[in-house]
Amino acid sequence: MLNKIISEEKISQLKQLIDDSHNIVMITHVSPDGDALGSSLCLYWLLHSMGKNASVVVPNRFPEFLAWLPGSKNIVVALDDNDRANKTIAEADLLCLLDFNTINRINWLKTPVGASKARRILIDHHPTPDIECDVEISHPEISSTAELMYRIVSMAGTPYDHITKDIAECIYTGMMTDTGNFSYNSQNPEIYLIINELLKIGINKDEIYNRVFNTYSVDRMRLMGYCLSKKMRIYEKQRTALIYLTAKECEHYNYRVGDTEGFVNLPFSIKDIDISIFVRQDNEKEKIKISFRSQGSFPANKMAEDFKGGGHLNAAGGESYVSMRTTLSMLEEAILNRERYEKE
Ligand SMILES: [Mn+2]
């Protein structure tokens, strides 16, 4: 049995909102990852089986290695079909906001969501959400929104707890991707109780791993090799690694969305590295995206705050609108003064 970390009251409020609604739209963050899609599609299938008109709307495309997820073909991608995204949101009587804590995370979907009179449920595991909602289920101590979804449906009882194999695959994918295949944020023993249940439902966890992680294109593999051999700086004393890529370099390797996913975690294979930073110039929007990762107690989110960002203790993001050269020297300054963040 799992600990009931979500209050019974919130579960019954959530059920009431769903009972009272017919057009229900799941919305998740920009550059949807395995957890964003897994948790959204989990709820999508559940509501679908309950006879609701359910839809999933995402701001932009998701990586190819998630395209096998059951239901992914029904997802409305706003950047590809803005009219349909706006219409779907406008017609909703309930919006389920999944896997994000602040409205800026959905970029251009902010406008239709802001204009909607629909009621809102937030289900998320990022710290201190600031979105006004009718029901807020926020648990930063839980490593994925997909895990939270499992907990919600198992507490909600029939018909919510009817977890099909498709739904189980969505949940497992979210749990697996947000923990790096259970290599971080994965100490809670209950994670494995849930996996035990999902396996009994019939998921093939090794196959899911292969579908998600062993699908590199040749270009991506070569880009990774290039990053590691030519573009990785090591600050030995600060136990920090920094990888940076310009838009031109990405282009050279035929960069596709998601190609650098996970690169930020590679330096943790080096002995004693506990901070890793990955910097990539985004061609489309003339901005530089920065991913911060840490292991142990170093607050990656504190460092990210100095770069217009934030996030979790061990995983955070930021951005920069100045040149790569300037961005790198700002990062270097932050790295050389890492104790500044540890003191706070
Ligand atoms: Mn997540």
Describe what this molecule looks like in 3D.
- The protein is of the alpha/beta class and 344 residues long.
- The protein has 2 domains: 8-213, inorganic pyrophosphatase (n-terminal core) (Alpha-Beta Complex); 218-343, Diaminopimelate Epimerase, Chain A, domain 1, CATH 3.10.310.
- It is 39% helix and 18% strand.
- It contains 13 helices and 12 strands.
- It has helices at 8-19, 34-49, 82-90, 110-115, 145-156, 165-177, 189-201, 205-213, 218-230, 247-252, 300-305, 324-336, 339-343; strands spanning 23-28, 53-58, 76-77, 94-98, 119-124, 135-138, 232-235, 240-245, 275-282, 287-294, 310-311, 315-320.
- The strands form 2 sheets. It has a 6-stranded parallel sheet with strand order 3-2-1-4-5-6, with helices on both faces. A 6-stranded mixed sheet has the order 7-8-9-10-12-11.
- Helix 6 (165-177) packs across helix 8 (205-213).
- The longest helix is centred in the N-terminal third of the chain and has 16 residues, at 34-49.
- It is globular and about 55 Å long.
- The two termini are 38 Å apart.
- The model has no long low-confidence stretch (mean pLDDT 96).
- Residues 35, 99, 125, 144-145, 178 line the site of manganese (II) ion (MN).
